[in-house]
Amino acid sequence: MIKLFYAPGTCALAPHIVLEWIGEPYELQRVKPKDPEYLQINPLGQVPAMIDGDSGVMSQADALLKYLAHKYPSAKLGDDGTLQGAYELDYWLAFLTGDVHPAFFPFFAPQRYWTEDSESARNTVKEASYKLIDRVFSHLDRHLADKEHIVGDRRTVADPYAFAMIRWGNNGLPDKLSAYPNIERFYQNCLKDEGVQRAMQQQGIS
Ligand SMILES: N[C@@H](CCC(=O)N[C@@H](CS)C(=O)NCC(=O)O)C(=O)O
């Protein structure tokens, strides 16, 4: 059985939603990423991590999402089988992992970006993080202008991955998602999904 290691509200929400969509039994373990016990599982001290039977520890959210899509092809959460479709899914997973997620690093861990704490350092890092997030959210908002899903015209593993990060923006940006109407629409649609609702309820987040 697959076991998912998660911390509430993190990017581990994405594979959690995917496991709900797949509908096979799985186990959930809540962890604190920097706990010595968890560092034995993932020495990087990051969630998500996953174990599937005798797979050993697997990590990196985008790799886990693709693993789940490949393992359960009947759930139809991967690409559409065309070369172009495979590229598009990879493009958006790479964008989410490599551009959107890091844009939130100074937002969640600003202390990593100054050598001396001061009000001015805090404000500078906060402003920088808003600019980084705006750059990637603007790109995503333009992409979603005429779309219901991140890739193609059906849900894929990219949807809950985007949702998990959009939720950070909704909960943390001063004006929430108001500057990004297409992202807002996508986000509201995701919130109506029963698998999304179950995963959020299990994690105790709103
Ligand atoms: N590259 C990793 C990044 C994972 C990551 O940074 N996860 C965050 C939560 S969203 C985390 O565990 N942060 C804990 C920390 O860095 O202390 C992935 O995509 O899975």
Shape: globular
Low-confidence stretches: none
Supply the number of helical segments: 9
N-to-C terminal Cα separation, in Å?
27 Å
Q: Name the CATH class of the largest domain.
A: Mainly Alpha
**How confident is the prediction overall: mean pLDDT?**
97
The helix content is 40-55%
- The CATH topology of the largest domain: Glutathione S-transferase Yfyf (Class Pi), Chain A, domain 2
- Sheet having the most strands: 4 strands, mixed
| Rg estimate, integer Å | 17 Å
- What number of domains? 2
In short:
The protein has helices spanning 13-22, 36-39, 61-71, 83-103, 105-108, 119-143, 158-172, 181-191, 194-203, and strands at residues 2-6, 26-30, 49-52, 57-59. With 206 residues, the protein is an alpha+beta fold.
Could you characterize what this model shows?
The structure is a single chain. The protein is α+β, with helices and mostly antiparallel strands. The chain has 2 domains: 2-76 and 199-203, 3-Layer(aba) Sandwich (Glutaredoxin); 83-193, Glutathione S-transferase Yfyf (Class Pi), Chain A, domain 2. Helix content is 54%, strand content 8%. The protein has helices at 13-22, 36-39, 61-71, 83-103, 105-108, 119-143, 158-172, 181-191, 194-203; strands spanning 2-6, 26-30, 49-52, 57-59. Strands 2-1-3-4 form a 4-stranded mixed β-sheet. Helix 4 runs parallel beside helix 7 and helix 7 crosses helix 8 (181-191). The protein is globular, with a radius of gyration of 17 Å. The model has no long low-confidence stretch (mean pLDDT 97).
List the helices and strands and how they pair.
Layout: E1 2-6, H1 13-22, E2 26-30, H2 36-39, E3 49-52, E4 57-59, H3 61-71, H4 83-103, H5 105-108, H6 119-143, H7 158-172, H8 181-191, H9 194-203
Parallel strand pairs: 1-2
Antiparallel strand pairs: 1-3, 3-4
The protein binds glutathione.
